[in-house]
Amino acid sequence: MNVDETLNNASIEEKLSLIVGGGGLPKKVPGGAGETRAIDLLNIPSIVLADGPAGVRISPFRIGSLDTYYATAFPNEIALASTWNLNIVEEVGKAIGEEARDYGIDVMLSPGLNIHRIPLGGRNFEYFSEDPLLSGKMAAAYVKGVQSVGVGATLKHFVANDQETNRLMIDIVVSERALREIYLRAFEIAIEESKPWAIMGSYNKLNGKYTVQNEWLLTKVLREEWGYEGLVMTDWGAGDNQIEQIKAGIDLIMPGNDEILKKLIEAYKNGLLDEKIINERAKKVLELVSKSLTYKGHKPSNKPDLEAHAKIAYDAAVEGFVLLKNDNALPISKDAKVALFGLGSYITVKGGLGSGIAHSKYTISIAEGLKEKGIKIDEEIERVHKNHPYFEIFRNYIILLKRIYEESNKSNIEAHRFLPPIIERSATLAYAYFGVNTEIKIEDSLIEKAAKEDDIAIITISRISGEGLDRMPIKGDYYLTDGEIELIKKVSNEFRKQGKKVVVILNIPSPIEIVSWRDYVDAILVIWTSGQEVGRAVADVLLGIVNPSGKLPITWPKELYETPAMRTFPGVPKENSQYLVYEEDIYVGYRYYDTFSVEPAYEFGYGLSYTKFDYSNLSITKEGDKIKVSLKVKNVGQCDGKEVVQVYVRAPRGKLNKPFQELKGFYKTKLLKPNEEENVTIEIPMKHLASFNGSSWVVEGGEYEIRVGSSSRDIRLIGKVTIEKVCFDVKWNKISC
Ligand code: BGC
User: Fold this and answer.
1) Contact assessment for residue 634 and residue 711, using Cβ atoms and an 8 Å cutoff
2) The model's pTM
3) Sign of CA dihedral 314, 319, 325, 327
4) pLDDT average, residue stretch 628-644
5) Probe ligand 1: pick from 199, 234, 467, max atoms within 8 Å of CB?
6) What phi and psi values does residue 507 have, to the nearest 5 degrees?
7) What is the mean pLDDT of the chain?
8) Within 270-305, where are the H helices?
């Protein structure tokens, strides 16, 4: 398409119609999130957008057809980040791109890269980390994967949508330094490294203005300073003034409707909207359309390679599990008979709720995964779980809804359209409300019997989270219920009496309270909400077929209220709005814990392995605008394993306060056999050492400590490098200091 010529031929109404989404749900691909408007006379097709990040969210069923349109459910982003493996995340992105392509989706509305400011963030599961470097790199890998097959990716939600409470009106008050060093930084890295086709604004306000109506953010920072050339869209229905949105820098108002379009045409006629701005915005939409597969004439096959992608979902899941504790309990023997407790063992939560759902054909539960590997499960305990009324309600509910669907499908009634999402959402909600939070009562005598007859106890604790709500600091959500605690204590008591081990599996979207009960158990494995293959991955890690290599992408607090941001969460009322001051400023996550010597339950970057790694031969050199950190990692344990090498930098004292240390690089090794070693080189761009002083970026001169380790508090090698003071302007041009 010759974009300029097409633009010249378009009327002002046509140009505005490009800027306003088609409204409602896409007709071409049921269950997608939205579409742009076509202009037939100019040969401009409408293109379709669908959610992620866990997979392509479309309806699995369609009116008048018995065909299915399932998508692979990949691990949620918190689990992907826990892999610290950019290659795997890129593969996941590519698989998602392929499914999007095969289902006729032009642009994925993912990845999400808001920051885990609080453990309770309702959408933390669909964001990567508390750290901007890890988040930005992960997002870049995801985007590269999606876009490698000709489908666009969207970074969302720009910016500071770090909680769900009051998301449509909350005003986030945050210093420019914290914004630039933490919240914007993740986006900046992802944009620089992966050139995403689109960016989605957020629902919240930022320092007094809706982000989607904030010219400083969308035009000055994003376009002028960062040179971003893709398209910027609103979140669905974000903000309160579409004219302001277009002026501020929004190119595409989503999902859009005819009323908004009419309003904008009026605004143009009344001189409230400039033709020049309309041209600029419409041009971005045309550029996006011209890159799309739809424009290029691609016809969806509707036959994605779900089998190949299931394998990728498994690979990503199995590398993202984090082993928090292991007192000789894991791996278990393949001959072990397992007493498997907890509803989540039998209905394992695969992902979060809301727009981030992927409608997969199945989810392999932990019990199913273990059985596939030939592991014997205590049948009596299984029966107690499966006979539990909540399990029954859940199962019957799905059967009933499926039946309704099938019946209505035969008669081809319009109701179908709404049923598939209802099935998925209600089933998951039924689980959330009736299942996960409701412990199963198990007779003491049965636990005693199991402790005598079985070899090991595994208890799964599950939680679910979703868009629109933050998690709650109550029993049954952040805290364990009395019943869950009681179960852990009883099982622990009986099994330990018999000299047997107790393992807890955490099937959760973000942290829960852990300190009060961790001493009762011998191993704790965090499996997050890791997609449809979760049970298979769990079985392989429990059996030692795969050695766990995930590391925490967040700090796990001892006490929820030690998280500094909990002091201000969820904000306070202000006139007819709500505002929230990010008082902790740049001290988010480990930046706070390390600087103010607060001990977490498990630190950022933490995760155990079944083997051990030795670090040696650290060398640090300056090469141009980079610092090169090289070292050797050797597997000195008994089994194969991968290690995540993390490089933290401690800056010298300067004018600005700095965190004790910050992550500046990381690398996941290949699978190392016992005695095998790998030479690792990690490069740190000089500009990543800069702090924002209010108007420009400053790398203080002096001696920097390069801290290389296996976690943020397990530093194995320390070196020093002297750096001269350097300053940059906001476009990263060097300036004199
Ligand atoms: C969510 C976005 C999503 C959009 C479209 C919004 O409510 O915040 O993340 O992409 O809906 O479904």
Assistant:
1) no
2) 0.96
3) positive
4) 98
5) 467
6) -105, 80
7) 93
8) 275-291
